[in-house]
Amino acid sequence: MNPALSISGQIAVITGGSRGIGAAIAAKLAAMGAQTYILGRDRAALAAAAERITRAGGSCRAMACDVESEAEVQLVARQVPPAGILVNCAGVGLSGRPLLECTSADWDRVFNTNLRGVFYAVRAFAPAMVETGGGHIINISSLAGKNPLPGGAIYAASKWGLNGLSYSLAEEMRRHNVRVSVICPGSVDTGFSAHEGKDPRRMLVPEDVAHAVAMLVTQRQQAFVSEVLIRPTQKP
After folding, report:
1. What is the rounded distance in angstroms from the CA atom of residue 138 to the CA atom of residue 130?
2. How many CB atoms within 10 Å of residue 55?
3. Each residue of 120-158: b (16+ CB within 10 Å) or e?
4. Catalytic residue among 37, 120, 155, 167
5. Level-2 CATH architecture, domain 11-230
6. Which of 11, 101, 122, 186 is most exposed, with minimal Cβ within 10 Å?
7. CA distance 78 to 84
8. Annotation marks residue 155 as catalytic
9. For 11, phi and psi rounded to 5 degrees?
10. What pTM was estimated for this model as a whole?
């Protein structure tokens, strides 16, 4: 992080911000002075996350939104001030299921959130960044988008797709001073998915990903870190 660069007062929208990685990112950005808006489907979890952030002295507003619905995403975008930071963290997992045992409903459930939801959010929030002359779009992917994942082919495919979307969008948005970055963490100790046989004491924690986001939004204007891969120091 560059302490000389402040995000105080900036508007930050975090999808999937009610728990896990998204909640940690929202807490970090709020602690850095951003006005955070967390989006998610679970109203109770959203309210609890927002309360924790405001109790710690940060600014946070919870907004119920299903990123699978373009109408809901667009509605929220009209209710939020122009955002300078968009973190696409909403995601669903699918592991331990060989592809031949998966259904088209499994495919739709994963892709509608992990990839289509990012498309909707970018279309809703990025135009304001273009109009105001800059911003950050940070997509939370996975090392599953870089490596084979037996038993999780659909999830891996969604993250490979997210990486491809991010790289291409980055080239489109650079001329508008909007930096599009992708973060690919390894296994993170959350309730997102099972991690059988792994030692949670060696796994990444949500705050590790939040630290990377903080680094990205405090880059010098002349610098652009387009991709961050995060691995635990010791294999879990």
Report:
1. 15
2. 9
3. bbbebbbebbeeeeebbbbbbbbbbbbeebeebbbbbbb
4. 155
5. 3-Layer(aba) Sandwich (3.40)
6. 101
7. 14
8. yes
9. -95, 125
10. 0.93
For the chain, which residues make up each domain, given as ranges? 11-230
Cβ contacts of 201 within 8 Å, gap of 6 or more: none
Report the amino acid identity of residue 199. Answer: D
Q: Over its length of 236 residues, how does the chain's per-residue pLDDT go in tens digits? A: 565 578 999 999 999 999 999 999 999 999 999 999 999 999 999 999 999 999 999 999 999 999 999 999 999 999 999 999 999 999 998 888 899 999 999 999 999 999 999 999 999 999 999 999 999 999 999 999 999 999 999 999 999 999 999 999 999 999 999 999 999 999 898 766 555 657 778 889 999 999 999 999 999 989 999 999 999 988 87
Distance of CA 215 to the CA centre of its chain: 14
Chain length of the chain: 236
